[in-house]
């Protein structure tokens, strides 16, 4: 975590990902709250400082000191300040135009609870709440492309699980950009057999190019399937994280002296919509809905298990998810939960999101198991994650059977979520967490005065 800290934010890894990533920073802040609550607050504040006028939080905030050829797509590809002008892209910082899953309000609430005294002294929640509310408005209105209330993603990068087989059918409609039109910097840092294929990457580039050339407008999809862009998908994990963050925004509103009743009611209503739109009781999990294809995508990805983290999920749905998590598609002889169906034709234990286990999804599922009273299963998953994180050198992702490291080493969210698991917090962050944060308030407030916005306290 120290090696990847830049002074105002944390890069996922120094080589492969040398900028700030949106949902990475949310998970990183969740872990940093135990090391330095001030630094965790700064992590989120830096990200939110790049928010667009329409409310979107971009999935990458570019560091201008990093050479353009260090990462692709680079700032000159996205052209955010010009192509995104109508959507309110910032003029003083370069970003991507796509988004990532909305973990941010949940992260902000957990960061506050780690040290309420410091948070109140700095006005942390009062500063981030309007930005988080605008972010949720963007997703709930501009991205309700199916018209039922769920947010849609318009690119696989937005869902975060970029290369999942769940995208194969929707992506098949996309004509790839010519290979000669871009250079993949990721292959300088990762083995080709662990990364997306050139064909898939060409499709990613085509989608991003079309979105950019359309001024990053989302409205074209609203006229129903077939209108607008080639890719529009309702994803269970993306929407589960939005719902969890709506619950967190309700808590934040209460802390600020307002009522969170309407947000809580919206979160519960959206949970019902999620079940209505994406739940398959026969297969015991949630599935993606392809708005252009007009139906559920019949691929079992870990995204379909993530709604387990929702506190108001009906008992029969939660129970079915636990059985699926432990069954032959995800739990047959594995150390950690794979990102894709062990019995699926596209399963690959090493290739990016097509089978390897990831620590952020493991963390979400461990939390969900505890939320629904499955403490023994949660404890076993927690111990397996801690052992594997250490043995793999805090790898980006691992073989779900052997724990062999894949992708980047020294990966920030792996380290951050390991810190959180080591703390062993209660899933609702009440009681023990509140008193622990209170005991730390005085010394953290002193550190805030000494270190200022740099977030330099080193717990």
From TrEMBL:
Molecular function as annotated in GO: Glc3Man9GlcNAc2 oligosaccharide glucosidase activity
- Does the UniProt entry include the keyword Zinc? no
Nucleus as a keyword?
no
Where along the chain is composition biased (Low complexity)?
433-451
Record InterPro entries: 6-hairpin_glycosidase_sf, 6hp_glycosidase-like_sf, Glycoside_hydrolase_63, MGH1-like_GH
In this chain, the stretch annotated as Disordered covers 426-459
Q: Name one GO biological process term.
A: protein N-linked glycosylation
Residue ranges annotated for the Mannosylglycerate hydrolase MGH1-like glycoside hydrolase domain, each copy included:
17-414
Q: Name one Pfam family in it.
A: MGH1-like_GH
Q: What family is this?
A: Belongs to the glycosyl hydrolase 63 family.
Name of the protein this chain belongs to: Mannosylglycerate hydrolase MGH1-like glycoside hydrolase domain-containing protein
């Amino acid at each position: 975590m120290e090696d990847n800290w830049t002074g105002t934010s944390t890069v996922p890894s120094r080589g492969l990902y040398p900028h700030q990533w949106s949902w990475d920073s949310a998970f990183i802040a969740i872990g940093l709250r135990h090391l330095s609550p001030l630094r965790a607050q700064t992590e989120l504040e830096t990200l939110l400082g790049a928010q667009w006028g329409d409310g979107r939080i971009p999935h990458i905030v570019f560091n201008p000191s990093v050479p353009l050829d260090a990462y692709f797509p680079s700032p000159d590809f996205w052209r955010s300040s010009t192509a995104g002008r109508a959507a309110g892209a910032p003029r003083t910082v370069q970003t991507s135009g796509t988004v990532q899953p909305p973990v941010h309000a949940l992260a902000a609430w957990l960061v506050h609870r780690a040290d309420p005294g410091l948070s109140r002294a700095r006005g942390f929640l009062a500063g981030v709440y309007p930005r988080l509310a605008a972010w949720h408005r963007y997703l709930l209105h501009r991205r309700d492309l199916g018209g039922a209330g769920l947010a849609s993603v318009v690119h696989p990068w937005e869902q975060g699980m970029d290369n999942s087989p769940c995208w194969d059918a929707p992506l098949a409609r996309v004509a790839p950009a010519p290979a000669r039109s871009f250079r993949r910097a990721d292959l300088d840092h990762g083995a080709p057999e662990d990364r997306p294929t050139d064909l898939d990457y060409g499709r990613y580039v085509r989608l991003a190019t079309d979105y950019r050339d359309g001024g990053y407008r989302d409205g074209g999809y609203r006229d129903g399937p077939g209108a607008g862009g080639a890719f529009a998908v309702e994803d269970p994990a993306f929407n589960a994280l939005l719902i969890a963050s709506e619950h967190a925004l309700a808590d934040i509103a209460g802390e600020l002296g307002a009522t969170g009743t309407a947000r809580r009611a919206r979160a519960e209503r959206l949970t019902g919509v999620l079940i209505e739109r994406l739940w398959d009781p026969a297969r015991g999990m949630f599935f993606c809905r392809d708005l252009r294809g007009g139906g559920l995508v019949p691929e079992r990805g870990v995204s379909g298990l993530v709604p387990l983290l929702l506190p108001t999920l009906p008992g029969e749905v939660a129970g079915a998810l636990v059985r699926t998590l432990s069954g032959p598609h995800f739990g047959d002889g594995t150390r950690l939960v794979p990102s894709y169906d062990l019995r699926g034709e596209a399963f690959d234990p090493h290739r990016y999101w097509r089978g390897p286990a990831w620590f952020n999804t493991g963390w979400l599922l461990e939390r969900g198991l505890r939320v629904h009273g499955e403490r023994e299963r949660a404890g076993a998953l927690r111990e397996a994650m801690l052992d594997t994180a250490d043995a793999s050198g805090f790898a980006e992702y691992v073989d779900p059977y052997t724990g062999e490291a894949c992708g980047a080493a020294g990966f920030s969210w792996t380290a951050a979520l390991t810190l959180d698991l080591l703390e062993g917090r209660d899933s609702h962050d009440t009681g023990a967490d509140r008193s622990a944060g209170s005991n730390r308030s005085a010394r953290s407030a002193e550190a805030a005065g000494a270190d200022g916005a740099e977030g330099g306290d080193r717990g």
